[in-house]
Design brief:
about 375 residues, alpha+beta, Rossmann fold, 9 helices, 20 strands, about 25% helix
Length: about 375
């Protein structure tokens, strides 16, 4: 396991009396591709700016290589930043844009040339060194900005939504390119985005944030398959979320029915939140299960159809590659490993209340446990 390169300890940032970051504790490993993911205003860019040294914390510490960075100016930190607006110099060609920082360091002409050519190879822009910035596409300009940041050989590259200005096809291509660069260089990338697919595609570790608080830290697979709360379940992909009751290990009740699941360790009778991903539900045009309903709408999404299925007042979102016409009566099959049980959300307004039957089950089971 890689060593800790950066530790954020009780980090807090306040603007005009409002905490935009609230006592953040997080470590970032050497050589890791870590993504800060969350909606606009959640504090992810502020965290990036604190690491870069562009702003100072209201309290707490940024530790890098066992050294507190308090009082260390940005230009003395082994950190470089790539912004969404690339801030390239239009009066300089590609070569001089990339070489700018090296010339300030007064390196030899031979050293500068060698390092610029190395970066042009890395970002697949060999032969573009004499071109002017206005002659480049958006994706090529983005590559120049990355090369200019990497040519100084930082320990950490900070990327603040650098792909936001690109079209969808180019954006997907650059996601793979960034991951390739990071793996080849072996340095730490800290990436900020609000795009869930982007985070899941590139990252070793995803940090999901909301309102200045870390909601969950984990691998992309963990974040998607094992969300810790309703916010994460809703923000990462699509989810069907229902209130329920844990009857016992591996058995839960929700939507008026009992289901087998793979979760355990909850108290018998504990109210829970239940997550079922749309792609984990199977639809059949027969009575294969007791959970039946009617297809209200169908959308073609390219690689699958998205169905809205009405079952006794709850509308399920279901993804399938097989077409079934609107108005069809269907049964829904949900296997045990498709059900994810979460401890009840701290915000009771995010879900409908449990039914009277579910509350009665919880009360009866709690009484049995006494």
């Amino acid at each position: 396991m890689s060593k800790h390169l950066i530790d954020l300890i009780d980090l807090r940032k306040e603007y005009d009396g409002v905490d935009v970051l609230k006592n953040i504790n997080l470590y970032i490993r050497d050589g890791e591709f870590l993504t800060l993911l969350g909606p606009s205003g959640c504090g992810k860019t502020t965290m990036l700016r604190l690491i870069a040294g562009f702003v100072l914390p209201s309290s707490g510490q940024v530790i890098m290589g066992n050294k507190d960075l308090a009082g260390v100016p940005p230009y003395k930190r082994r950190v470089n930043t790539v912004f969404q607006k690339y801030a390239l110099f239009p009066h300089l060609n590609v070569y001089d844009n990339i070489a700018f920082g090296l010339k300030i360091q007064k390196l030899s002409k031979a050293e500068i040339q060698a390092r610029v050519q190395e970066m042009l190879e890395l970002v697949n822009l060999r032969g573009y060194d004499k071109r002017w910035i206005e002659q480049l596409s958006g994706g090529q300009q983005q590559r120049v900005a990355i090369a200019r940041a990497l040519v100084n050989r930082p320990q950490v590259l900070l990327l603040d939504e650098p792909l936001g200005a690109l079209d969808l096809k180019l954006r997907k291509g650059m996601q793979l390119e960034l991951k390739r660069m990071q793996q080849k260089l072996g340095i730490t990338f800290i990436y900020v985005t609000h795009d869930q697919e982007e985070a899941l595609t590139m990252s070793d570790t995803v940090v999901v944030m909301n309102e200045g608080v870390i909601q969950q830290v984990g691998t992309p697979i963990d974040i998607y398959n094992e969300p810790k709360n309703i916010f994460v379940a809703k923000f990462i992909g699509e989810s069907n979320i229902l209130p329920g009751v844990m009857l016992q290990d591996y058995r839960a009740r929700f939507h008026g029915r009992e289901f087998e699941c793979v979760d355990f360790g909850f108290a018998a009778g504990e109210p829970v939140d239940v997550v079922v991903r749309p792609e984990d539900i199977d639809l059949y045009e027969d009575n294969r299960s007791s959970l039946t309903g009617k297809i209200k709408s169908v959308l073609f999404m390219g690689v699958h159809y998205e169905f809205q299925v009405d079952t006794e007042g709850f509308s399920w979102t279901v993804h399938s590659t097989d077409y079934i016409a609107p108005g069809s009566e269907v049964s829904l099959v949900i296997l045990p490993d498709a059900i994810h049980i979460m401890h009840k959300s701290l915000n009771p307004d995010e879900l409908e209340r449990p039914t009277e039957d579910e509350l009665a089950d919880a009360a009866a089971l709690a009484e049995e446990q006494k």
